[in-house]
Write a structure and sequence with these properties.
mainly alpha; 7 helices
């Protein structure tokens, strides 16, 4: 996770402004809701690892699927001309995009591992609990 995040930070900081903007627009890197979802999942994982408590059943995961949902709901014009594909900055943009998705995938895997080890907590109302 740290490696992909470091790669993403390095690439996103050295891309030309055009590709930085494109990366932010296509991945929701600067979208407050997406940032909040990632932080919430990481915070819940941290808490579960510290306390040994099970993760909640309902989390905003898988994050990779949510990223693809965002991408589909915010379509952008994509230029696949030979010049674009040959452009080194475009290839670095693609690597940064891949690093972001790998980062999200690593968080999704972490959630599955923690749920496998510590379990999953389900919310049951008192009324339903009394019926059992």
């Amino acid at each position: 996770m740290n490696r992909t995040l470091g790669q993403l930070l390095l690439l996103s900081g050295t891309l030309p402004n055009e590709f930085q903007h494109r990366l932010a627009q296509q991945t929701a890197l600067l979208d407050h809701q997406c940032i909040g979802e990632i932080m919430a999942v990481l915070g819940m994982c941290e808490q579960a690892l510290k306390t040994g408590d099970a993760l909640p059943e309902i989390l905003p995961t898988p994050l990779v699927r949510r990223a693809f949902d965002y991408w589909q709901s915010h379509p952008a014009e994509i230029d696949f001309s030979p010049e674009t594909v040959r452009d080194e900055n475009y290839r670095r943009f693609c690597v940064a995009l891949s690093a972001y998705l790998k980062f999200l995938g690593t968080i999704d895997e972490l959630v599955l591992v923690i749920k496998g080890v510590l379990g999953e907590a389900h919310l049951v109302s008192h009324e339903l609990g009394d019926l059992v």
